Amino acid sequence: MTDIELLDQMIKDEAKMVLEEKNGKLYVTLKEPQYPKGSVTIAGMPNNSIVIKADKFNSPDSLFAGSKAFPPARPRPNL
After folding, report:
1. pTM recorded for the entire structure
2. Would you put residue 60 in left (φ > 0), alpha (ψ -120 to 50) or beta?
3. Where in the chain are the domains?
4. Buried b (16+ CB within 10 A) or exposed e, 7-40
5. How far apart are CA 44 and CA 31, in angstroms?
6. How far apart, in whole angstroms, are the C-alpha atoms of residue 22 and residue 40?
7. What angle do CA 12, 14, 16 make, to 5 degrees?
8. Average pLDDT of adjacent 10-residue blocks, the chain of 79 residues
9. CA–CA distance, 26 with 34 (Å, rounded to integer)
């Protein structure tokens, strides 16, 4: 499993933006809720892109699914 696949599984579906396709290219349109006419479109997104609605979530536990655990950090060597 690649790192991006692992990250995709860790993030809740409702926290992710859906990529759209136009003319064979993927894009996402980011909108600013406070400004209804405010938006930006990012075109040419890679197939494995993950776009997170970060401003909709107050804390990491509301963003992450909690389905994976990281292994403990390895001790650093003394230099």
Report:
1. 0.65
2. alpha
3. 3-59
4. eeebbeeebebebeeeeeeeeeeeeeeeeeeeee
5. 18
6. 15
7. 80
8. 88 90 95 87 95 76 60 63
9. 26
| Reduced 3-state DSSP string for 20-60 | EEECCEEEEEEECCCCCCCEEEEEEECCCCCCECHHHCCCH
**6, 64 Cβ separation under 8 angstroms:** no
- Two tokens at 68? 């994976």
Tokens of 14: 């409702």
- State which amino acid sits at residue 57: F
The CB-side HSE value for 61 (13 A sphere, CA atoms) comes to 0
